[in-house]
Amino acid sequence: MTTAAQRPATLEDVARVAGVSRSTASRVIAGTGFASPAAREQVTAAVDQLGYVPNPAARALVRGGGVRLVVAVLGTSAAVLDDPYVHQVVGSAARVCTPAGVGVALHWLPFGDPRTLDQIGRDRSVCGVILVNTTEDLLAAVPQSLRGRVVSIGIGSATVPSFDVDNAAGSEAVLRHLYAAGRRRIAMVTGPRWLPCAQRPVQTYRRLMAEAGLPERILPGDFRAARGRTAAGEALHRWPDIDAVYAISDDTALGVIAGLRDAGVRVPGDVAVAGFDDIPLAGMTAPALTTASHPVGRIAVAAATAVLDGRPAAPVTLFPSALVARASA
Amino acid sequence: MTTAAQRPATLEDVARVAGVSRSTASRVIAGTGFASPAAREQVTAAVDQLGYVPNPAARALVRGGGVRLVVAVLGTSAAVLDDPYVHQVVGSAARVCTPAGVGVALHWLPFGDPRTLDQIGRDRSVCGVILVNTTEDLLAAVPQSLRGRVVSIGIGSATVPSFDVDNAAGSEAVLRHLYAAGRRRIAMVTGPRWLPCAQRPVQTYRRLMAEAGLPERILPGDFRAARGRTAAGEALHRWPDIDAVYAISDDTALGVIAGLRDAGVRVPGDVAVAGFDDIPLAGMTAPALTTASHPVGRIAVAAATAVLDGRPAAPVTLFPSALVARASA
DNA sequence: CTGTTAGCGCCTTCAT
DNA sequence: ATGAAGGCGCTAACAG
Lengths: 329, 329
Fold this sequence. Notes:
Two copies of one chain form a homodimer.
Chain A: H1 11-18, H2 22-30, H3 37-50, H4 56-63, E1 68-75, H5 84-97, E2 103-110, H6 114-122, E3 126-132, H7 136-140, E4 150-153, E5 162-165, H8 167-180, E6 186-189, H9 196-212, E7 218-219, H10 225-238, E8 244-247, H11 250-262, E9 272-274, E10 291-292, H12 296-309, E11 316-319, E12 323-324
Parallel strand pairs in A: 1-2, 1-3, 3-4, 4-5, 5-11, 6-7, 6-8, 8-9
Antiparallel strand pairs in A: 10-12
Helix pairs in contact in A: 1-2, 1-3, 2-3, 5-12, 8-9, 10-11
Chain A binds a DNA duplex through helix 2 and helix 4.
GO molecular function (chains A, B): DNA binding
InterPro entries (chains A, B): HTH_LacI, LacI/GalR-like_sensor, Lambda_DNA-bd_dom_sf, Peripla_BP_I
Organism (chains A, B): Micromonospora parva
């Protein structure tokens, strides 16, 4: 059905073979505008014969559309770009963008440096931006030029729609589960202090502890397993009577379990542990991890779709988080 | 240093402000061709003042360069695109491509369907392709038009350079470790049968077992944890005397451990378990997982760089795999 | 309904 | 060393 062309066919070639003008060929291929059934057929046949594939770059150039969707991640160093969470966002976004002829780029946004984001906004090849690890400062630094084609995975603003998991509700479900199981000395390992969307679970924790008349025991974390392991030791040291630890990520929670085991503490016998994310391995560990689901892939797909579509999205789109009760708590 | 332009500046604007022609501006900005120090300075100043960012799409159009690097994954269904391994490849590639103004696209390649790859080769916006899960058939289906700008993570060919971990050596190290620890009834959970790069560890296993006069015990797998769990049961059923299991991925190995635990078998007391990959969580589980390292990120970076650079790469680039001995074996 | 005419933003011979 | 001109591949008004 196609002759292996040495030089890929262009619209011009298609038009010539079909015996019509470029415009007509363009119309039937892009599906825009009118065309007689006859012309339509000629063009389709020519496309088939030539194995013609439109060039998204040329198309974007004339339409002013852009060919890249940027995933921009705020962080203290470029190492944030190596994060599995970021990779999942990029992968899911790429999958959505591919049919549209759009590629995904990955940028590190240093703290307190609006220049990078400014440049991205001035790059005419950029069709939109997904912000990750968003802060108020970052939102304030979003240039006008990006209006309407930028979204955030995390907190949003009046001009930047937000897509995120409902981690307040998820956290509440986990904490209530802990409470229902009789746990009363519950420590929490949080995310980075500068990250607003990691503070919401903390607020939930504070509120619930206050309501139940229980003490607040908070340890800073960074979503990673290594920190969980050290945090477990710290928690044991500062509050020897703890009977539960809630970590804001599964990786951290598994680190906590490792740390507790290091100290000879049984899980869940002595201390219950719960995480957040429901990573694939959460059901495989010993003990299997109690956690709350976190549909990162679906969130990224929704965010990318919103940017691609370009029509105004709802200010906040929350994805439900469900408790997944396993053995660890 | 930049006035927030409503409409991003173009080369034309820069030239006007600098008081030179577009050609001159282009030369100094692209760093190609000659330019007087005076002109150079004028242009640089104008770029700064206007906050000019070149449009990679326009540039690619005129140079015939392309703006997207395609990660193409062979698999039975589009679900392969959701794999964390694939996401890591995409993320690492995106990081490399971004400075070059190139975005990453993600394609699923169905079995026995050369059309998709053909189309990719005819898309003039594609600057190169990284093949993942490569087979001989796939290699044979690589169109001429892709020559010199396609690489494989997995097996390669005369025209497709290969980038991969040295999983033969890695597997040998793991298996010798098992043997040195006194294990003599070693089963192996492999990858998909159709995946050549997953067969290399199997060959190594066969050779070593033969050399040591030990029985071959092979179970098919799919790299995933769930399969490891069921495979453990099968192994126990078919070969009640096994004292070790080597799984071709850490996920699978952790599944195996879970499956053994389900059956009341102690790890490593009764049966040792080893994996391959050294994922971040491998050191956190109970018992901590013995495995071999697998620098996926570095491999993807090398592959993407090779495609971007466009100069012929070595036929095969092998990344070393190191034994990481922990508690499970 | 179709073809002609202009570009989108940029690079690259060619003269100068 | 610089400018003018042409064109990469495509779409979007325009006329016809």
